[in-house]
Specification:
By secondary structure, the protein is an alpha/beta fold. The chain has two domains: 5-34 and 138-229, D-Maltodextrin-Binding Protein, domain 2 (3-Layer(aba) Sandwich); 37-136, Periplasmic binding protein-like II (D-Maltodextrin-Binding Protein, domain 2). It has ten helices and eight strands. A five-stranded mixed beta sheet has the order 5-4-6-3-7. A three-stranded antiparallel beta sheet has the order 1-8-2. It starts with a strand and ends in a 21-residue tail after the last helix.
Length: 250
Amino acid sequence: GKAQFGMSFQDSLAPAVAGESAMPVTAVAAVIQHNTSGIVSRKGEGMDRPKGMEGKTYATWEMPIEKAMVKNVVESDGGDYGKVKLVPSTVTDEVSALRTKSVDSIWIFYAWAGVKMELEGLDTDYFAFADLNPVFDYYTPVIIANNTFLETEGDTARAFLRAVSRGYEDAVKNPREAAEILCAAAPELDPELAAASQEYLADKYQADAAQWGYIDPARWNAFYGWLNENQLLDTQIPENAGFSNDYLPQ
């Protein structure tokens, strides 16, 4: 109850959707339509495909879903997941981590870390999870809301999401201006990186959806169905659990 809205991700939200650890939150908008995350590595070291991760180090944050996804793409590519060297690490500077060879591969959001590597002239190889398995085209990140707030202040929630929608629609049309607004509010950011990131994301915020923020039930359920099939959670997630399109502008 300390916040009405927040940012989360469908994968990390999964344990909070059902069971004893369920939290009173609902995803109410997709920030971008498709999963743009994947594995980045130094160019030419064979990790442009998952099998190439064999014998190389990967910076893991030790999440069961994360490791299961990496295992899936490596094995689907004919690789041996057991040969991937997992290094527990929360990388905060991906460019330095790759340049200094402290790790060989990192899971990133391309819109920030990938664009940063381009700007800093680090040649990389990259593969996106959504390109390898359609089940992994889940929603990340998402805006979540407090369920009690949604139930008692539904009109306020809808008004908030109307305003947020207008902001993202403007970012689609004017990415550089959006970056300037962001940097004015967060002056610690690198203006060049923020601008390049917004240029990258401009056609990805809404992409092929009828409106910004829409969550496709089939794609949402497909990812949670995969988690259920692979018993990655203590509790099975029911269909259509954890999200709603009801608060988006009609």
